[in-house]
## 1
Amino acid sequence: MINKKKEKIIDTEKLQNENKKIHICNGKSCSIAGTQEILKDWLKEDFKDEEIGYYPCFGKCDTNFALFYDGKAYSAPSAKSLKKIINK
Ligand code: FES
């Protein structure tokens, strides 16, 4: 899948094979910003630990808080914005 804004190629086959419902970015920019653990805490309200996967970079490096859900890459810098994404 290609994220048109950033032209980031995401290996959706790999995502599907991991059998996860949602993926958090564990790329360099998000790792340095330390946003994965914050996202994971917020996601625990709606997903089990085993439903949360990781993937290296979704092309949202400038905003961090990157995740991939339901075929799209997002940046969710607040719990409220994350809820909006997963409740679409
Ligand atoms: S490192 Fe997280 S979106 Fe690029």
## 2
Amino acid sequence: MKSAMMTPDLLPGVELAMVFAERKCPELKGIKHAWCDECDAAHDQEPRQLSHTYHRPKTICWARAITDQAVEHQIGICLHEYGHLLAGDCGSVVDDEAGADLAVLDRMGVEIRYVGPHELQTVELGDLS
Ligand SMILES: [Zn+2]
Ligand SMILES: [Zn+2]
């Protein structure tokens, strides 16, 4: 299986989001990306569950199914997870779903929207400049 050979940060959308997020928020450097069996199990129960954080230290966990998602969704989900980390750290916004997106808007200037039958996070690629 291809996804077993590579780490999630080599996916085009995750890599783009990581480089962008680290440029906007240098304190995010050192956050790692890893496949997670619990994330896979959560995805099997609920299709929109593709990522989580605060499971392993300084790590964003990914379900392997993220490899099937479009780059815009990979970026949107990845930035949302970074938003949880930013919200949890700085304390100026509440670390809930809306708070994570607010942290991304505040700190990176990117609006996260929700589209499709599973209400997946997405971004405008042009916003990542
Ligand atoms: Zn996990
Ligand atoms: Zn979330």
